[in-house]
Design a protein that fits this description.
This protein is α+β, with helices and mostly antiparallel strands. About 40% of the residues lie in helices and about 20% in strands. Strands 1, 2, 3, 6, 7 and 8 form a six-stranded antiparallel sheet that branches. The protein has a two-stranded antiparallel ribbon with strand order 4-5.
């Protein structure tokens, strides 16, 4: 099943590259223009600049795009063996085709694995080496995140971020140390990202709030981000809504809510949600002159609890 109605495999390759980069299909071109476009690889620069929206593997599966992709790559392999001229015409574009496939996750999809295997065979026949990792393109995904205007509901104020998480290692990171210092200075807290830096979240203050240092650096929310990162690397897409909840007249959220959809590699969607307390640390209490809620000799002590029976153990 070809990607277009043409009989040109090179045109289909160009359409494939644009689709993986999340860009609209190219305009009508002559065969000579197509060859030059494949050689230039402008779609990679556009993805790096944030113009594209690299699809999740599950979105491609849901749209049945892998049927056409596999047919295209199988046809290229067969024709390259029977027609040496085709291998010569493909050779200038194979490196860019390789770099395009690197935009997708490395694990978790047999469909993507098959495309990479067939591309490797084509590169072997063309006697081409794989480009080093230093040439891999990282997409800018900051435009995929939204930060609605904060709103109030009764005694609470809500700050929200939402969007599609980028695959760690496949997206450009946007950390802004100056913005983090502006949020965390003289608070005893971290400037925690609503959308994590590893997922391509923006580095500005719109994406930062005062967060418990332990939760941010190695606590419960950090653990959730680690889970998301592992799923993304294994071809599971993640779309999130993260809300920080403030009491009126307070500049520090007391709670964070994360709700997300997981787009599995076969296109199925799972929903999940977690709520995190943003408690104070001794450092944040000290900066805000807030007295501790437990005696000094109890600070840092572990309280044994039987959660099944819902009672404290002695």
């Amino acid at each position: 099943m070809p990607l277009t109605n043409s009989n040109s495999p090179l045109r289909d390759v160009l359409f494939f590259c644009h689709e993986i980069a999340g860009l609209p299909p190219p305009s009508s071109m002559t065969e000579t223009q197509i060859v030059e476009a494949l050689k230039q690889g402008s779609w990679l620069a556009r993805a790096q600049a944030g113009e594209g929206r690299v699809p999740y593997v599950g979105e491609l599966a849901h749209a049945h795009r892998f049927i056409g992709f596999k047919a295209l790559f199988a046809s290229l392999v067969m024709k390259s063996q029977a027609e040496p001229a085709l291998t010569s015409s493909l050779r200038p574009s194979l490196t860019n085709l390789f770099l395009t496939l690197q935009l997708l996750p490395d694990y978790g999809s047999t469909e993507v694995d098959l495309l990479r295997q067939r591309l490797s065979l084509l590169m072997d026949r063309a006697r081409l080496n794989r480009p080093p990792a230093t040439q891999y393109v990282k997409a800018d995904v900051t435009d995929q995140f939204r930060f609605p205007k904060p709103f109030r509901d009764g005694q609470y104020r809500y700050v929200e971020a939402n969007g599609r998480l980028g695959v760690p290692g496949k997206v450009t990171q946007q950390r802004d140390r100056n913005a983090q210092r502006r949020v965390s200075r003289h608070t005893g807290d971290d400037a925690g990202h609503l959308i994590g830096n590893q997922f391509g979240g923006p580095g500005g203050v719109e994406n930062l709030t005062a967060q418990n240092k332990i939760a941010n650096e190695n606590g419960t929310f950090h653990a959730l981000e680690d889970r998301w990162a592992e799923k993304l690397r294994n071809s599971i897409g993640i779309e999130v809504v993260v809300q920080d909840v403030f009491r009126n007249n307070e500049d520090r959220p007391f709670m964070r809510r994360a709700a997300w959809n997981e787009i599995l590699a076969d296109g199925a969607i799972l929903k999940d949600e977690l709520v995190f307390a943003n408690t104070h640390t001794p450092g944040s209490r000290e900066w805000r002159a807030i007295p501790p809620t437990v005696p000094d000799d109890n600070i840092g002590r572990l309280i044994p609890v039987d959660f099944r029976l819902r009672r404290r153990l002695t």
